[in-house]
Amino acid sequence: MIDVMDTAGIEPGFPNPVFDSQDTFRRILDAYAYVGRPQTLSCATTAIGPLGPASASICLTLADFETPIWLDPASNLKPVRDYLGFHCGVPFTGTAVTATFAVVADPAAMPPLAAFALGTELVPQGSTTVIIQVPSFSKGPSVRWSGPGIPDEISPAIEGLPTWFWDEWGANHELYPIGVDILFTCERSIVALPRSISVEN
Hints:
Order of helices and strands: HEHEHEEEHEEE
Radius of gyration: 16 Å
Largest sheet: 6 strands, mixed
Number of strands: 8
Shape: globular
Strand content: 15-25%
Number of helices: 4
Strand order of the largest sheet: 1-7-6-4-3-2
Helix content: 10-25%
């Protein structure tokens, strides 16, 4: 059965696509420059089904026809596929290891980080950026982050992650300069976790 795109029912993207995507891109850069510090998107689009405003805005800003997206089962719905296909022109992949971007709407059921593209020594930028939606940035277990972009150390408390996540992150960090990068999202805000950051429980 062919999954036909119903363009009449697709929600609008950014109200001002050029300026809004530029502003969102600056906020994403700030998230990577000030690791662990939440950045609020001033021009986030509306939620699209299970995709919150920040997750949808990141996709609108970064994704295009050259960046395959993997959607987890919670976000792999026709309205989401139609929205991203229409506004971004993205190809979808059913295998996480071939994804440039991955959207995780249900962190409790996400695959291990090693299931995504890790890049190579020659092409470290070929790794997957994983967009993970969480309930909050302050109500989960507190862990210590240190590394580039963090003057001393910080202790974010990301809520909703699987119990194995930080152990997996330790293994991912040890692979540096290859490995995945993470963009956590909550409503209209984002927190970046680059592969260069060390995390201790």
